[in-house]
Amino acid sequence: MSAAPARFTFDLDLAAPQRKMRSIPEDEVNLMLAHARASSYNDGLRDGQSSIEARAADTLAESANQLMDKLGDTVETLARRQRQYLEDAVTLSATIARKLAAHLVARQPAAEMTALIEECMTSLDHAPHLVIRCHPELCDAMKDAAEAHMTSTGFTGRLVVMGDPEIHLGDGRLEWVDGGLVRDINTISDEINARIAAYLAAHDAKTE
Hints:
Layout: H1 26-107, H2 111-121, E1 129-134, H3 139-153, E2 158-163, E3 172-176, E4 179-183, H4 185-207
Parallel strand pairs: 1-2
Antiparallel strand pairs: 1-3, 3-4
Helix pairs in contact: 1-4, 2-3
């Protein structure tokens, strides 16, 4: 014979007096709902504003970085252009100077060598000889100029004037026992180029 099934009982004493549930007025419920909605709205608005401000800050930072990159590129471009303008100006000035010098030599080919003879003969009063090498076309002019300065400076040494077709018109060499002077347009041009390069290099170093 099987045992009778046990009855399910609730842990509730039905005989005990029950507490009466307090009802909440509808207006209070509505007020609570309104407060909840307002709080949720404010939280959402605050979160939205924070998100917008964060995105705006990121956008502003990115724009600032792009602006700085473009500014750096612009500064480098301006520096390169300024350097190019300076180089062009210096080169143009040197080119004009060379053309003017060549024009003057063509008009007065003996002028430079005459000035060179005058410069050296003031200190050659005891030299045994003076050799002048120049373009063949200038031999007579150089001899006349040297003889004129021999009279004024008291030079009594031997004078030798030699024509050399390999010497450019306007160039020449003066030679004596322990020294000499040279006028060479190519050497002068190379020196001008070296000075231009040094000037530009110094300018680049100053602007770095």
